[in-house]
Amino acid sequence: MARLELQLYDYNEWANGQIFNRIKELPKDVYRKEIQSVFSSISRVLAHVYLSDLGWIEVFSGKDMEHALMLQEQLKEETESKELEEMEAMFLKLSERYKLLFSQLEDSDKPLVIKNPNGDLMETSVFEQVPHVVNHGTYHRGNITAMLRQLGYASVPTDYGLYQYLKQYQLI
């Protein structure tokens, strides 16, 4: 059986795909529609999740947190301007980076010391932080679900239990 962290990351990739597929089914303006919510548009939620995931892989690859935060700030406006299909392609490319990193780690775990912006050090590892990346994505997929409902549309199920069921019966 694969590491739980890798299974969780596969789930995260599947759930993101579910969201992208649902948004593509809706009128094109839904992606950028301004609404009163946690984020001002679905496009901004997806940009935030992408930039956060990008920041974490930078940290996992040996860069410091300050570098990751600067990179996120530098790319924020450009990322927020991407159309849905471009954003989906960026997510897929980033997932490939994650999978390559995970394959290089195999069953070992890369020690990680993260210097937080306040100066504190946190000793952890790459695989210990994967659930954080997945949980962050899950949280914001929930934001998107709420935003879709505000706009008058149903979302799509992205529950981990559903993912496990579909995997077990080879439906995905």
Automatic annotation (TrEMBL):
GO terms for molecular function: metal ion binding. It comes from the Bacteria. The keyword Metal-binding applies. A divalent metal cation binds at H48, H136, H140. Keywords: Metal-binding. SUPFAM superfamilies: DinB/YfiT-like putative metalloenzymes. The keyword tRNA-binding does not apply. PANTHER family: PROTEIN DINB (PTHR37302:SF1), SLR1116 PROTEIN (PTHR37302). Belongs to the DinB family. This is Damage-inducible protein DinB. The lineage of its organism: Bacteria, Bacillati, Bacillota, Bacilli, Bacillales.
